[in-house]
Write a structure and sequence with these properties.
This protein is α/β, with parallel strands linked by helices. It has 19 helices and 17 strands. Helix 5 packs parallel to helix 12 and helix 17 packs across helix 19.
């Protein structure tokens, strides 16, 4: 496959991220007084709160203690609570038995372990804490431990084999209903905190939170969003978003909060927001979260603690291990927590007993679904139904306006273009033109030329067929489409498709592929990847019109069909529309157990204004539309 522009999308965001970081660093350098710091903190907290809003209404936890495991000097209570109605959370509460209550309390957040709270390293940090007199509640995240949401799927399903793919599945379906999966994860942590504060054994003056990897993420998200936490220790997550993008490292969908980049928020701001409250940052030299970024974050956060005269409340630890909550980092966390709690370390190297997973089950058979929990995809479907019922009918002009606003589609103008060297596919000469739809973005327009000597000047017929492929024009440009009018065919590789696809075609639909990673970048900038691809197509149409084209017959295949239905609705020059493998509706997709449609095709909050059937009806009023 010819993809000469394969670095385009990554370079585009690296440039944007560097510019954002430079402007942010300029602002940080101007902060020199407590008044300056407090003003900056207020802005940061407001932006972070908005990214994780709205939070649901608190409902009864309905906690149940389903069993107890007794061990030397501590016991483990097996607990189920409801973070929201019919959404069961399984957890273990580690209770000291050789100390007098009340105990300083800690919430443990899990990383991406398939066995959740039962992962050996997570059992270990809970035991280290309980042996030193801490009350510890650790809970299973969605699709980890006992919280498998896809019990109806076969065991070899991708969503059963790994929690990350399942998280991304839930997250992209939530996107349609304007929900952020990170907020759902945050809410579980807040409700875990609500539960531990109900326990008489808990010392309300000391409530810590710690976790590694995805648990480090949740510790980071919880810290500025929940003031009741008094100390935090995130591990193996602390590195700027910029480093993750530059290092081509995609993150789980809950690790990508909406609209934070366009508000100049970086990871360090989640800790700056809580200065001068005590926090220790934990990292490892060989972690894939870049240790250079860890050190940068520490230095940025340290400035605020110095301004507040509270350097003693900030600490860091860097071990010599790869990614993971290793014993050295655990010891540093326990030591810091003991310091803040004003208690001595009484057991630096306790005997660690790793329990079998089923020993720690809070449910009878290790499944919240069989215990009465409603699967997340059903909850999403119910919310989608309510949105559909309350959605107001709009006029065509108003709907166009709202779609452009939601998808951040600006007004188009005739773009600049370059004439590229032709491509030969199966002895056919393909003309290629690079069209600059915005600085740094080149959309590739292709045409199977019957006059090869004339391809170096873009001349367009009065009527043409414009085709939007699924993932690459190279795959489709030589195919016969007898249903299309007998006009000259042009193919368009929008950004991230075809020649600018950053990876092999076989990997395009991977849950953690580059398409997902780039889509998350747009999401965090408060933009829409689908909206950008629609804009690319509309810009190409403006160029074609400027070259004398008066009538366009539009064809789209699968992803191209999703782009195509919006383009057909928004463009007046489109005459006939042919869409192959078009989604039935966003609403139907939100109710499915799973879907292979990439998140880049699922606009944030689209159901609040429209759905595909409504757009189809609007297009049919003015154009000939054929669904293939």
């Amino acid at each position: 496959m010819k993809n000469d522009y394969r670095h385009m999308m990554l370079d585009y965001f690296i440039k944007r991220m560097r510019k954002m970081n430079e402007e942010r660093e300029t602002v940080l350098k101007e902060i020199k007084s407590q008044k300056d710091a407090l003003k900056y903190q207020e802005k940061v907290r407001s932006t972070i709160k908005k990214a994780f809003s709205p939070l649901p209404e608190k409902t009864p936890l309905n906690p149940k203690i389903t069993g107890t495991v007794k061990r030397k000097n501590y016991r483990i209570e097996k607990i189920i609570f409801e973070s929201r109605p019919e959404c069961l959370v399984t957890s273990n509460l580690y209770i000291p038995e050789k100390f007098d209550p009340p105990f300083p309390a800690v919430i443990g957040t899990c990383g991406h372990s398939i066995n959740g709270k039962a992962a050996p390293k997570y059992q270990e940090f809970c035991q280290r804490l309980v042996h030193n007199g801490f009350l510890v509640l650790i809970y299973d995240p969605f699709n980890q431990g006992e919280r498998d949401q896809y019990t109806r799927l076969p065991k070899n399903s991708l969503l059963k084999r790994g929690c990350c793919a399942a998280h991304n599945m839930m997250g992209k379906q939530m996107q349609i209903i304007d929900e952020f999966f990170g907020t759902w994860r945050l809410w579980d942590g807040i409700r875990a905190l609500d539960y531990i504060l109900q326990r008489p054994e808990a010392d309300k003056k000391f409530i810590g939170v710690t976790g590694n990897s995805g648990g480090g993420t949740m510790t980071t998200w919880l810290w500025p969003n929940e003031k009741r936490f008094t100390v935090a220790a995130p591990s193996c997550f602390i590195s700027p978003f910029r480093y993750n993008i530059e290092n081509e490292m995609p993150q789980d969908i809950e690790q990508c909060p909406p609209e934070i980049f366009n508000n100049y928020i970086e990871i360090s701001d989640f800790f700056i927001a809580r200065a001068p409250d005590p926090v220790i940052l934990l990292g490892q030299n060989y972690d894939y979260f870049d240790i250079r970024g860890f050190k940068e974050i520490y230095e940025q956060v340290k400035r605020f603690y110095e301004i507040f005269g509270a350097q003693q409340n900030l600490a860091y630890f860097i071990g010599n291990n790869p990614h993971g909550y290793y014993s050295d980092a655990q010891k540093a966390m326990v030591s810091f927590f003991c310091k803040i709690a004003e208690k001595q370390i009484v057991c630096e190297d306790p005997e660690i007993k790793i329990e079998n997973e089923d020993t720690l089950f809070a449910t009878k058979n290790g499944s919240v679904i069989s215990s009465g929990s409603k699967p997340v995809y059903k909850i999403i479907g119910e919310i989608a139904d309510k949105i559909n019922q309350s959605r107001k009918k709009m006029s065509e002009d108003e709907l166009k306006k709202q779609i452009k606003k939601l998808l951040k589609i600006p007004e188009t103008k005739v773009p600049y273009y370059r004439v590229l060297r032709p491509q030969i596919i199966k002895k056919e000469i393909i003309a290629r033109y690079a069209i600059e739809t915005e600085p740094g973005i080149w959309v590739i327009l292709k045409n199977k030329s019957e006059r090869p000597d004339f391809i170096y000047n873009l001349e367009v017929e009065k009527e043409i067929n414009l085709c939007i492929p699924n993932i690459s024009s190279e795959d489709e440009i030589l195919k016969k489409r007898k249903f299309l009018p007998g006009c000259q065919e042009y193919f368009i590789d929008v950004r991230g498709i075809g020649e600018s696809m950053p990876e092999e075609k076989k990997n395009f639909f991977r849950p953690y592929g580059y398409d997902f990673m780039i889509d998350r970048c747009f999401y965090m900038f408060g933009e829409s990847y689908l909206g950008k691809r629609i804009y690319d197509t509309l810009s190409v149409i403006e160029l074609l019109k400027s070259k004398g084209c008066e009538k366009i017959n539009l064809y789209g295949n699968y992803q191209g069909a999703i782009i195509g239905i919006f383009v057909a609705f928004l463009s007046d020059v489109i005459s006939k529309v042919y869409l192959e493998k078009l989604l039935d509706s966003f609403s139907a997709l939100s109710r499915k157990i799973s879907t292979g449609v990439p998140s880049s095709n699922l606009p944030k909050g689209i159901l609040k204004i429209t759905d595909i059937p409504e757009i189809i009806d609007a297009v049919k009023k003015k154009k000939e539309l054929i669904i293939l």
